[in-house]
Amino acid sequence: MRVLALLDGTLVDPEAPLFRADDLGVMRGDGIFETILVADRKPRELGPHLDRLERSAGLMQMRLPERAAWERVVQAVIDNWPWDTDPQMALKLVCTRGVDGGDGTPNGFAMGMQIGPDTLRKRAEGVAAVTLERGYAPDLMDRAPWLLLSAKTLSYAVNMAAMREAESRGADEVIFTATDGSVLEGPTSTVVLAQGRTLLTTPPSSGILKGTTQGALFRAAEKAGWKTEVAKFPASALFESDGVWLASSVRLVTQVHTIDGTAVKTDADLHAEINRLYESNY
Ligand SMILES: Cc1ncc(COP(=O)(O)O)c(C=O)c1O
């Protein structure tokens, strides 16, 4: 099931070709995207997702259609989704730099998709993760803006290769580490730890994406009296915490039960509390 709409709100056949072969998004992965969860017709964290899309476009120095166009296309997909049979949808916003040698007019669309069975399994059962080197230092982002660290670009081939590496090692997910051994993020997720009544995550200044799901969880946790900390931490902390989660818009807040073949602490009550906190936002 797919619902595809263009930025003027027009619906198009999701199985028909949409992009020219010389579109820079196709040829070079030169574009940006967002993936948003829509539950019962309501998009979650739409403002932060659109803020991040604008930030990514800024880092990429590419033109982006105006925010009102994105809001319109989001609504067009929501209005045409079969909510009676599918109460949740993953909504992808994609924008490329346009055609090679063109005038820089960006090309974009929004596509609603069903939540895949693999994601539902991970939400329900938790995941085994492996730590993999990402190959950059946590202070590189400001020194080397051309690397686009912290931008959500379409160039996810490395992230997907890391996921295949995890699968070849019998795991479901990856936790990337920096050259100093500190924890960065997953290929499509933010790492969150619980230490007592404190939630901890890696700072975006380490060159990672600022997670909207982690942001929503921390917002609710602070209201409920938890402490939250955004600070660099070593991979050893993964094994010494009271819980480890991978957070992202569609997977939600998924518990990690095993890292590099070693069981890490899990607590069903704590996991339920963390998920209640996250859901209390909506
Ligand atoms: C690299 C990376 N980090 C973190 C996240 C989590 O972000 P969000 O919670 O906004 O979905 C994603 C989402 O896909 C991601 O691709």
The major sheet is characterized as: 8 strands, mixed
CATH topology of the largest domain: D-amino Acid Aminotransferase, Chain A, domain 2
CATH C-level class of the largest domain: Alpha Beta
**Beta-strand content:** 25-35%
Fourth CATH level, the homologous superfamily of the largest domain: D-amino Acid Aminotransferase, subunit A, domain 2
Number of domains: 2
Bound molecules: pyridoxal-5'-phosphate
In the CATH hierarchy, the architecture of the largest domain is Alpha-Beta Barrel
Ranges where pLDDT stays below 50 over 5 or more residues in a row are none
Radius of gyration: 19 Å
Taking the alpha carbons of the first and last residues, their distance comes to 25 Å
**Shape, per Cα inertia axes:** globular
Beta strand count: 14
If helices are DSSP runs of H or I spanning 4 or more residues, what is the number of helices?
9
**Helix/strand-derived class?**
alpha+beta
Q: Sketch the topology as an H/E string, one letter per element.
A: EEHEEHHEEHEHHEEEHEHEEEH
Bin the helical content. 25-40%
Report on the architecture of this protein.
This is Aminodeoxychorismate lyase. Pfam families: Aminotran_4 (PF01063). Its EC number is 4.1.3.38. Belongs to the class-IV pyridoxal-phosphate-dependent aminotransferase family. By secondary structure, the chain is α+β, with helices and mostly antiparallel strands. The protein has 2 domains: 2-114, D-amino Acid Aminotransferase, Chain A, domain 1; 120-279, Alpha-Beta Barrel (D-amino Acid Aminotransferase, Chain A, domain 2). The chain contains 9 helices and 14 strands. Strand 1 (2-6) and strand 2 form a beta hairpin. The longest helix is centred in the N-terminal third of the chain and has 15 residues, at 46-60. 39% of the residues are buried. Residues 35, 185, 187-190, 209, 211-214, 247-249 line the site of pyridoxal-5'-phosphate (PLP).
